[in-house]
Amino acid sequence: MTTIAFPLVPRSNPRRVLADLLPGTLARDIALVVGVAALTALAAQLRIPIPGLPVPITGQTFAVLLGAAAIGPVRGAFAQVLYLALGMVGLPVFTGGASGVEVVFGASGGYIVGYIVASIVVGALAKRGLDRGVLGTVLAFAAGTATIYAIGVPWLAVTTGMAPGAALVAGAGVFLVGDAIKAALAGVLLPGAWKLTER
């Protein structure tokens, strides 16, 4: 019987992510979750406001998706749940040092919730080996980005009263070039990290 291998996934696929190469179990996993949550909070402060638009450009999506690919779907999702919880209880971890429930229920709240789902998507793709090559990594990042927008854009439209088309442009279209750059950068970093582990 002939099998057809998916070309973007290596033949030898142990269903591991980069973090699984580190020794340890529960303590390691807790540290990874806290670390990615902290990285997301730091990246949220890298903020470029866009005049006339309610959602700024930030480094969050890069931190979220890179973190998910590195630590996997379950730990990645927990990291974003922790990030969301910390912001809701008042720690200044959201964009621009913001915090509180009102941020989650505001214009950018859908993107924050989308980080949890996107972490599951990208982490699962990484476990299947897509982060071992440039093209696979870019496609995984594209899938994660699309997931964030699928939740964030409708949320933006509802909370601001924007028409769907306007919300799509304001909440996704203006960020596409930056997203492409982030995906390309990840396409260098993740496969490069795997190659280093093989030495």
Automatic annotation (TrEMBL):
Gene3D superfamilies given in the database record: 1.10.1760.20
Instruction: Identify the keywords attached in UniProt to this record, alphabetized.
Output: Cell membrane, Membrane, Transmembrane, Transmembrane helix, Transport
The membrane-spanning stretches of this chain are 30-50, 103-126, 133-157, 163-190
How does this protein sit in the membrane? Multi-pass membrane protein
Top-level taxon of the source organism: Bacteria
Q: One Pfam family name from the record?
A: BioY
**What compartments host this protein?**
Cell membrane
PANTHER family assigned: BIOTIN TRANSPORTER BIOY
Into which family does the record put it?
Belongs to the BioY family.
The name this protein carries in UniProt is Biotin transporter
